[in-house]
Amino acid sequence: MAEPLDTAPASFDALYRESARDLHAYVRTLLHDEASAEDVTALAFERAYRRRKTFDIRRGSQRAWLFGIARNAALDELRRRRRIAPLVTELEDQHVHALDEQAEQSLRRAAVRTALDALEPRDREIVALKFHGGLSNAELAAVIGTSESNAGTRLHRAVTKLREACHAPS
Amino acid sequence: MRHREPLSPEAVRDLEAIDRALAGEPVEYELREIEDLVRDVRASAPEMSPALTARLEREIESGFASTPSSVSEPKRTWALPRLRVLVPAAGTVAAVLVALVLVTGPGGGSDEGAVVNASRETTKPTAPASDPPNADTATADPSFQKDLERSSGGAAATGSAGVVPDPDAVLASRNRKVERRVSLVLQTERGKVASTADDVIGTVDRFRGIVASSSISSDDQSSEAVFDLRIPTAKLDAALAALSKLGHVAERRQDLQDITSSVSSARERRDDARAERRGLLRALGRATTQAQIESLRARLRLVRSQISSAQAQLSSLNRRASLSTVSVTVRGDGKPGEGGGAWSLGDAGGDAVRALEVIAGVALITLAVALPLALLGGVILFGSHLARARRRENALDAT
């Protein structure tokens, strides 16, 4: 018997406040497009709200459940985008951030961002799920549909690639 | 794809460092690079715009009552729930309909306990009352013969009497000869078998029929009377209706057999023999020698024998057509009340059992039909789910 998410508005509101920023960051990393990321984030929350009675605590945490919904919505958006037109990557307006932060830190973060964008999509996704979503390896496994050990292996491999890319000369 | 390869100690250490860094806990000095990486990635996370924040808070507050977002929902998201409901529902409805047809329709249900329109009737009991009672008046005209060949699949052409495939077509011709055999089982109370047997005989007399044989037997448990009757075919339907009122009709069978070709064949043989006899008589009148006379007389004896044989066969066939064979069995092993009379508590119990049997039959057939449909639907849904998941993963790889 599924244990539904507390259907009280306050409970869902708490889930929203706790995860909206991270969810948006994950979706944005996956889609490379701010407008789509906003729509998919909104759609994910809408779907989660409408399906909150089907949530089963035995299958994972609320956060992992929400990220799973967002992942499906984002992948559907990628599929739709493939059918309509080739992906046009939105260029990051990195210098805007740079103006607001110290130069060294800004440069390092820009390099991280560039390295993250250069990763393979699956590597980029698992890094985003871990670093933005803050999911445990078990929750990662549930979201991407694999075993916990495999999720750990994939995450470690992706992080290693990210570290190498950050150190690579630009 | 799932792998079960164990993580190396270094990998475990790195992953634990990531978890600690994400939790804001201190990380070993040699792993500070990972901590920095976590911090930088998180710090470089794209921020939600104030517009999105306002939009989400507004929609959550209103319970997402406003228009859905501009991202198009995949059609399957809405189509699948409909399929999930409609496919099993349609399958169940179809299964119930099939079950009802099988259980309640002709040929369904139990063989016993059938009423007058019993399922075992092989043909329709609609012989016309205008059938000529005297078979000698029937003639096998060519058009009729062709008609019969068409309707009986050529049986008439071979001279054999077969079961008529289309009784309506056969009965449509007033010159056709049809033999009817009816078997009737009447159920009554054990103590009423004798009186019912008397009623059977009275009914046969009323319709000018013949009781070819009859027997009554009884033991401690049951009593039974068996009659072999001959009823004029022209009055058969009325006689059957009267007989059926004498008890509860537990079973009724009716067979129809077209014997027109046999009648025609016998008649032709007789007529041919008669014509030959006339020729022989004329030849005998013209015979001049004793040898010729003896030879012709010998042939005449043979032809007379053929005429008698053909005539006897013709008469027998005509009797079979004009008198239908009716076998009546009166069974007295029923409980009181089954043989007629007012509807009693026993009848109610019997009806309830019958209703339960029908319900169980419907349920069983429904299950037999619905189960494969449900399995098929499940396989389709599972396949659809897998295909959708695969398409999503492919979309990720293609970016």
Number of helices of chain A: 8
**CA-based gyration radius of chain B:** 43 Å
Largest sheet features of chain B: 5 strands, mixed
Helical percent range of chain B?
A: 55-70%
How much helical structure, as a percent, in the residues of chain A?
over 70%
Distance, first to last CA of chain A: 54 Å
What is the subunit arrangement here?
heterodimer
Q: Shape of chain B from CA axes?
A: elongated
Structure description:
- The complex is a heterodimer of chains A (170) and B (399).
- Helix content of chain A is 74%, strand content 0%.
- Chain A is built from 8 helices and no strands.
- In chain A, helix 1 runs antiparallel to helix 6 and helix 4 runs antiparallel to helix 5.
- The longest helix of chain A has 23 residues.
- The relative contact order of chain A is 0.13.
- Chain B is of the alpha+beta class and 399 residues long.
- Chain B contains 12 helices and 5 strands.
- About 18% of the residues of chain B have low confidence.
- At the A-B interface, helix 1, helix 2, helix 3, helix 5 and helix 6 of A face helix 1, helix 2, helix 3 and helix 12 of B.
Question: Could you give a short description of this structure?
Answer:
Helices cover 74% and strands 0% of the residues of chain A. Chain A has 8 helices and no strands.
Topology:
The complex is a heterodimer of chains A (170) and B (399).
Chain A: H1 9-31, H2 34-50, H3 62-84, H4 94-100, H5 103-118, H6 121-131, H7 137-144, H8 148-167
Helix pairs in contact in A: 1-2, 1-3, 1-6, 2-3, 3-7, 4-5, 5-8, 6-8, 7-8
Chain B: H1 9-23, H2 32-43, H3 50-61, H4 75-104, H5 142-151, H6 155-158, H7 167-171, E1 178-189, H8 193-206, E2 210-218, E3 223-232, H9 236-244, E4 248-258, H10 260-286, H11 290-322, E5 323-334, H12 345-398
Parallel strand pairs in B: 1-5
Antiparallel strand pairs in B: 1-4, 2-3, 3-5
Helix pairs in contact in B: 1-2, 4-12, 10-11
